[in-house]
C-alpha cells in the first residue's frame, strides 16, 4: 500500500523569498522574472508573510504609495498560514480551504522549504477534490 502523500511530495521546492526590507517595486520585478503571483516575505530566513500581485496593486499603488519606498514587510499583515513539510495532503487542502488561500508555504525546521499552489494540487488530487478546493477558495471573503 502506498504511503499517504505529504506536502513535501507535491510542493515546489524552489520558493524564493523576498526580504522584508526589500521595496515593492523590486518585489514586482521579482514576480515578473520568476513568473509568479506571490512571494513569501522573509526576515532572517523566517516566514513573516506573503506578498501577492494584488497586494501590490490594491494596498500600495491604489492607495497612492510609492512602490520604491514601501517595503515588503510593510504589507505583511497578520500571521501567515503554512503547513509542515510532513503534513498530509488532506491537511494541506484543509488549511487552504479554511483560509481561502491559493498558495501555501511549506515549512521544515522553522525554515521555508517550498510552496504549494493550485497547479500542484491539480496534479495530485482527484478531480472531485480539486473541484471542492476551487469552490471553497473562490467564495468571496
TrEMBL record:
Entries under SUPFAM superfamilies matching the protein: CBS-domain pair (SSF54631)
Domain of life assignment: Bacteria
PROSITE patterns: CBS
InterPro entries documented for this protein: CBS_dom, CBS_dom_sf, Diverse_CBS-Domain
Keywords: CBS domain
Record-linked Pfam families: CBS
Domain CBS: 11-68, 75-132
UniProt xrefs under PANTHER family: CBS DOMAIN-CONTAINING PROTEIN, CBS DOMAIN-CONTAINING PROTEIN CBSX3, MITOCHONDRIAL
Name of the protein in its database record: CBS domain-containing protein
Organism: Nocardia xishanensis
Lineage: Bacteria, Bacillati, Actinomycetota, Actinomycetes, Mycobacteriales
